[in-house]
Amino acid sequence: MNHKIVGIPRALLYYYDKDLWIEFIKKLGHTPKISSFSNKKHLEEGQKLANDESCLSLKLFLGHINELKDECDMILVPRLFSIKKKEQVCTNFNCLYDLVNNLFDINIINYNIDLTEKESKLMAFLKLGEILGASYIKSYKAYKYAEKISLMKRKKLEQEQAEKLSTSKIKILLAGHPYNLYDELIGKPVCKFLSENEITILYSDRIDHTKIDEECKKLSTDIHWTHSKEVMASINYYQDKVDGIILLSSFPCGPDSLSNELISHKIKECPLITLIFEDLNSEVGVITRLESFIDILKTKKEKIYGKNN
Predict the structure, then answer these.
(1) Cβ distance 181 to 252 under 8 Å?
(2) pTM of the complete model beyond 0.85
């Protein structure tokens, strides 16, 4: 089996499956190469490649592909349709492979997950292992190993988040898709500002996944976007456990435009603001809104507990 350098764009699905990808690729004897943290060059290149209707997160993704295109033997670009029964993911995840294949002259490796066609995650990774030159047995063992590592890391994050709930500091739930929350250009400046103001940050993707269906149903029984359900469930679960909620989206996200509207109507007791990122040309407006929001939360907390708390 020839050793390969497998490119992994640090965008979109990376923030859901990075541990699974990295450990699987390494276990099969190859080297994963992750693109650098998002920067203005990624955005500029992505804007040139994407059409006007593409969301900010997709534009950044294309910028990451552009960085990797000459540095790897192949680039991993999965195609997802349904990863949970009777649910669907964003249409961007349906077309990523075809989009990249049409825009770039590169060697792409991919896998399909579509439960409507009985194409499971396990089967997808067995096929990916075959593409990487591994036997069925070796691919199966690599997948199970990678899955175990991924679940262990997730459980650790969930536990650490649960422990944060006991703090007396102001707690804010930062809600949104992980590829926005943790991106260097989108969510990281928000996290940095909150941390500098001694705010305890909780993240929507670190909710116990066994709670998602139950919590989401309390807001709506009609949501079939898997990743939107995670965001909505976390907001409902944490709304009485935090002092405020920041809902973060990239423009123009179709599923978010629907779920954000529903959230704004359903969540009344907990202070909530929505930040929608479009071009990232200036942080001034975002920081101004965050300052006002934090002032509101501090004033409310002082009225309830007194100035010394």
Answers:
(1) no
(2) yes
> What is the count of structural domains for the chain?
2
Nearest to 227 by CA among 240, 244, 245, 209: 209
Could you read off the pLDDT of 231-289 as tens digits, one per residue? 999 999 999 999 999 999 988 877 777 788 888 888 888 999 999 888 766 677 888 99
Query: Average pLDDT of the chain?
Result: 91
Torsion sign, CA atoms 86, 89, 90, 95: negative
Contact 294, 197 (CB under 8 A): yes
Of the chain, the end-to-end C-alpha distance in Å amounts to: 62
Phi, psi of 110 (to 5 degrees): -150, 170
Q: What is the CATH number of the domain that holds 292?
A: 3.40.50.11900
* Residue numbers of the domain that contains 262: 165-305
**pLDDT (tens digit, 9 = 90+) per residue, 117-126?**
999 999 999 9
Instruction: Dump pLDDT digits (tens) for 189-245.
Output: 999 999 999 999 999 999 998 999 899 888 887 788 889 999 999 999 999 999 999
**What is the Cα Rg of the chain in Å?**
20
Q: Which of 117, 151, 185 delimits the end of a domain?
A: 151
Q: Tokens 């004033």, residue?
A: 299
Query: Are residues 114 and 237 both part of a single domain?
Result: no
210, 298: one domain: yes
In this structure, are 198 and 113 located in the same domain? no
Cα dihedral across residues 184, 104, 91, 83: positive or negative: negative
b/e string for 101-113 if b means 16 or more Cβ within 10 A? eeebebebbbbbb
